[in-house]
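User: quick one, fold this
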Amino acid sequence: MKADPSQVPVFVLCGGVGTRLKEQTELLPKPMVPIGNRPILWHIMHTYAHYGFKKFVLCLGYKAEVIKAYFLNYASLNSDFTVELKTGNTTVQSIDHEQDWQVTLVDTGELTMTGARVARAAEKYLGDSEHFAVTYGDGLTNANLGDEHAFHLSHGKIGTVLGASPPSRFGQIVLDGDWISRFEEKPEFTDEWINGGYFFFHRSFASYLSKDESCVLERAPLVKLAEDQQLAMFKHQGFWACMDTQRDLDDLNQKWASRGAPWAVWVDE
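Assistant:
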């Protein structure tokens, strides 16, 4: 079964406060914290766009006005234009970007939890789409989202989650009784899986959600979906990272500055 990814809406959770990045998020919502000279949100959207996804629904909350202003001014920030100061007329001289994305910005409430954000936005903007995607506004990956989408359509379950197997942050000590037999470097991958975000759902998943602001996506909705044996995992052992702390942010910026950012799958386009 094939479906045109350009018609699949991608709901991006952009409403959290990001308290563990407080120095950054006192002025900016977390998805607007920059990696290089672009918000992490732009990197996430660009990854989807590489695989043909072009319809985005941003579920806003904390400092929603910052994200709204960024996209309202996106054309002018990425174009040459002339302003007639006396009349205020503006003429675009050249458009210096290639993003043919459709971006819908939805204020889903400042204190609303993740599940309720999706429920509130989907009620208005899911339209007649049979399937939709959901992701967080702080996670990056080089997973092939086109392959994950195809996997989702093939298995017939309601939901698919990207299973990430990130490298350990710590080296390991191997013991022989009380004696240290060897040190091991940080293992590149473990055999354990975590929720990497980057979900795909059939529209019937809406019945698992609630618009009540206390509805947390990762609790009752996904737990019940798993209990009903309606949640599959797309396993990914490549790059995955969540920008949770200043250390994470510094590491992502270092990777971007070195031109070795694994998530930048669009670079060679």
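User: anything notable?
Assistant: The helical segments are 22-25, 40-50, 64-72, 74-77, 114-125, 145-155, 220-227, 246-257.
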